[in-house]
Design brief:
The protein has 142 residues and is an alpha/beta fold. It has one domain: Rossmann fold. Helix content is 46%, strand content 15%. It contains six helices and four strands; from the N terminus they run E-H-H-H-E-H-E-H-E-H. The chain has a four-stranded parallel sheet, with helices on both faces. Strand 3, helix 5 and strand 4 form a beta-alpha-beta unit. Helix 1 packs across helix 6. The radius of gyration is 14 Å and the shape is globular.
């Protein structure tokens, strides 16, 4: 079992919520812990409104420090997701950045040659989950 930090857009937009949920459910079904699973649910915006920003920052930083790897859905641009990716990479964590094929993705991700980052496009849910499985398999062999 792995501890996987899942990162996705909140305030930047929720158009990809269906794939967020599919990824988190797939990770849970595969027996992995996902401390950020609540981010994949529609009610997250209401829940996050009542949490102090400093509390969110401290909580999420601790979760990234404790995780085995990060999976970030990056189809919708997000300052927070970018920050979490960079922070995880600086800690030496492995990071999968997945996005819908054809969606423009920041060159700060696609051009990043730091060790540990993988940027993967997907055509549909099955493709996204296959990319997740390959990433997880790579984590378990390290």
């Amino acid at each position: 079992m792995m501890n996987i930090y899942f990162s996705c857009s909140l305030t930047g937009g929720r158009d990809d919520e269906v794939i967020y949920r599919a990824i988190v459910e797939h990770l849970h079904t595969s027996g992995h812990e996902v401390p950020t699973a609540h981010l994949a649910h529609p009610e997250v915006m209401e829940l996050e409104k009542i949490v102090d920003p400093a509390e969110v920052y401290q909580r999420d930083i601790a979760w990234i420090q404790a995780c085995d790897g990060v999976i970030a859905e990056v189809s919708t641009p997000s300052h927070g997701v970018g920050y979490e990716i960079a922070y995880a990479l600086c800690l030496g964590k492995q990071v999968l950045c997945c996005h819908r094929r054809g969606v423009p993705v920041s060159k700060m991700l696609t051009g990043n040659d730091m060790p540990g980052i993988a940027v993967q496009s997907y055509e549909n849910k099955a493709d996204a989950l296959a990319a997740v499985d390959v990433f997880i398999a790579g984590l378990s062999t390290e």
